[in-house]
Write a structure and sequence with these properties.
alpha/beta, Rossmann fold, binds NADP nicotinamide-adenine-dinucleotide phosphate
């Protein structure tokens, strides 16, 4: 696809020129930052979220390179509508960033059936449904899928039983997608990203809603090395690299981005 310089975010590069990206969870945190950075590198972006108004606000802030749409990642019919809207608005679709996610507290003993389903539905089923749409749509023309897992998909945390299970699932779902795409020569790369603590509304809300927010804050700080703070743009820059052709040989990989917090 030829690039359209007129929709480029000002002061930007061209590492993602011509890419057409659907970013789920685009109304907030890592998704919003990623959409901004992708547009800044020449991509056209569709921000998709259950928070339709929030996604529209972020898209307006980005400018002409961005559009927004409602998407509930748990529902197949919602995916069909969002993909149709993406293709119509962006002129095609070759990048999926699966950023939508939720975080809920619960150990193996306290996690309820409702919480288990809520978390697995959004984080794992939502990622699977999106990737299935992408693989069906992009084969032949090629594309890139980036799945947001977490360090919680690699190491366990007693309070995040359902979340850990969902993110561990995303990690291996990613490798299953790559195995399928490479065996069949589909030209689609798929990688998972594993952030440590990134200061977004997800983390802030989780801490604020705990019984002891001060102690909870200290616990979350301890997950990162002293003095290291993770920002949404840190993850967004990695996603830009994975979307760009600079990373063309990176496929089926799991990229930890946590300042070294889980190195031991
Ligand atoms: P965030 O700020 O809470 O953004 C997540 C967005 O996803 C929100 O706009 C949320 O809407 C939306 N969403 C929730 N359920 C959805 C659904 N069913 N369909 C579509 N959109 C939905 O979170 P974040 O920190 O940027 O997290 C982005 C991704 O990175 C998540 O997958 C998260 O698990 C992962 N991650 C984050 C961290 C971290 O420390 N922040 C670390 C590792 C991995 P509502 O606000 O209305 O729910």
């Amino acid at each position: 696809m030829s690039s359209d310089q007129s929709v480029r975010t000002s002061g930007a590069g061209n590492r993602c020129d011509g890419k057409r990206a659907l970013v789920t969870g685009g109304a907030s945190g890592i998704g919003a930052a990623t959409a901004r950075l992708l547009a800044g590198e020449g991509a056209r972006v569709m921000l998709a979220d259950v928070d339709e108004a929030g996604a529209a606000r972020i898209a307006d802030g980005i400018g002409k390179a961005a559009s927004s749409t409602f998407l509930d990642v748990c529902r197949a019919d919602s995916w069909s509508a969002a993909v149709a809207s993406t293709v119509a608005r962006l002129g095609g679709w070759d990048v999926l960033v699966n950023c939508a996610g939720i975080l809920r507290r619960g150990t193996i003993e306290t996690t309820t059936m409702a919480t288990w389903h809520e978390v697995l539905d959004v984080n794992l089923r939502g990622t699977w449904l999106g990737a299935r749409e992408a693989v069906r749509h992009m084969q032949g023309t090629g594309g890139v899928i980036v799945n947001l897992s977490s360090v919680a998909g690699i190491v366990g945390d007693q309070d995040l039983c359902a979340y850990d299970a969902s993110k561990g699932g995303v990690r291996l779902l990613t490798k299953a997608i790559t195995d399928h795409a490479t065996r069949h020569g589909l030209g689609i790369r798929c990688n998972s990203i594993h952030p440590g603590v990134i200061e977004t509304p997800m983390v802030a809300n989780y801490i604020a809603e705990s019984d002891d927010p001060v102690a909870e804050r200290a616990l979350w700080d301890s997950y990162m090395p002293p003095g290291v703070t993770g920002h949404a743009d840190d993850v967004g820059h990695l996603i830009v690299f994975l979307v760009s052709d600079e990373s063309r040989l990176i496929d089926g990989a799991e990229l930890v981005i946590d300042g070294g917090g889980t190195v031991e």
